[in-house]
Amino acid sequence: MTNKELAAVRGRLDEFLGDLLAPMGRSERQHWATVYIQGLLMDGDRKSIEPMANRMEGADIQSLRQFVGQSPWAVEEVQHLLAEKMVDLLTEPEVWMIDETSFPKAGTASVGVARQYCGALGKVANCQVAVSLHWSTAQMSCPLLWRLYLPAVWLADPQRRAAGKIPENLQYQSKNELALGLIDQALDWDLPRLPVVADSAYGNDFDFRQALRQRGLPYAVAVEPTTKVWTADPNQIPVPVGKPGGRPRKFVPLAALPEPQTLAELARSLPSSAWQAVTWRTGTKGPQRSRFAKVKVWAAHGWKAQRHPERVAEWLLIEWAAGAEAPSDYWLADLGPQPVGLRRLVRIARSRWRVELDYRELKEELGLDHYEGRHWLGWHHHVTLVSLAFAFLRQEQVRIKKNFWCDTAANPPSVAGGVD
């Protein structure tokens, strides 16, 4: 935004932030939060503290650094209020999106930095990685929760822990465990339950899908074509009677189980009648349309090692565009006990594209990856403030929609002909 554009929305911004900043306590904290968010919203190539302060009249670099990096305001309380506001604003929700994004770094001092896969660069590089949960409708989405991934080397080194000001009780968690922690936080806040969508880094994990089922959450998650499944229920294979006097068998022996197929093998074995053309949305390039098939399957995770996790039916969704040499995408889904139509399944599975738009806007417009502080608390403060700025932009988008019926003001005018 230009200075003029920011001035035009300043009243709405102050109103939007009013209750969200209340958990910060002291008025000076709320003041600097507002200044920081204004800096994020303003035009400028760099959204770190010093260049933002230099663009804003009355901004103080040292005060902003202290507020973001050291001030003891609670991130989760602000995120909780933001979640409630976005649930109310972005009605007709569709999914919860789980994903991760990376922050390339030149140095090694920023908390969590390590040589690891960096999605922003498409290769292993020096970076931070964060996991986020987004609330999403069919038209727009917004991040609600963030957690920075800490490689084990950071938590095993007392000097690194101290330098990054990492909380003493923090233990190592994988990205999938962080994602489940975000989901549990959303459940604790009683956010409306929605299907969870995620890429194959999460979907490939049998335990992650099982954890979603244990929480009663529907899901449609991407998986790799090498995943192995059965197309008949392995639980129906009778357990043979053991030897007289021996311990009774609990499980079917390995030799009695049929050989599972990879998803790629299963896709090629399907008859032509299994495939249907589905249009799942209309984008800037016109209708998004492809061929899909769905098959009920049972995941064979750990079958050769004779592990015995609970084997449950899931829907396998396969996309194989007409004329393509091979399928392009696979998902495993459990959308609950009701019948699952192909179009609904495709729409949910294909809804994850919006998270990439979120990350792009968060980084290119709001400086999500520009924070130069080195500490755990400061990083989480920064991404929370960026989320507030992003949520305000979402409110502005909703406000100008011609067909939007709800007034976003705190005290909307009465509607002519309405009921008091």
Give the SSE order as H and E letters: HHHHHEEEEHHHEHHEEEHEEEEHHH
Global geometry: globular
Beta-strand percentage range = 15-25%
Q: Ends: how far apart?
A: 38 Å
Instruction: Sketch the major β-sheet.
Output: 12 strands, mixed
Radius of gyration: 25 Å
Mean pLDDT: 90
Individual helix count? 14
Helix content range of the residues, please? 25-40%
Uncertain regions: pLDDT < 50 for 5+ in a row?
Answer: 403-420
Q: What is the number of E strands? A: 12
Structural class: alpha+beta
Name the descriptors.
420 residues; alpha+beta; twelve-stranded mixed sheet; 12 strands; 36% helix; 21% strand
Explain the overall architecture:
It is a single chain. With 420 residues, this protein is an alpha+beta fold. Helices cover 36% and strands 21% of the residues. Strands 1, 2, 3, 4, 5, 6, 7, 8, 9, 10, 11 and 12 form a twelve-stranded mixed sheet that branches. Helix 2 crosses helix 14 (376-400). The longest helix is centred in the last third of the chain and has 25 residues, at 376-400. It is globular, with a radius of gyration of 25 Å. Mean pLDDT is 90; it is low at 403-420.
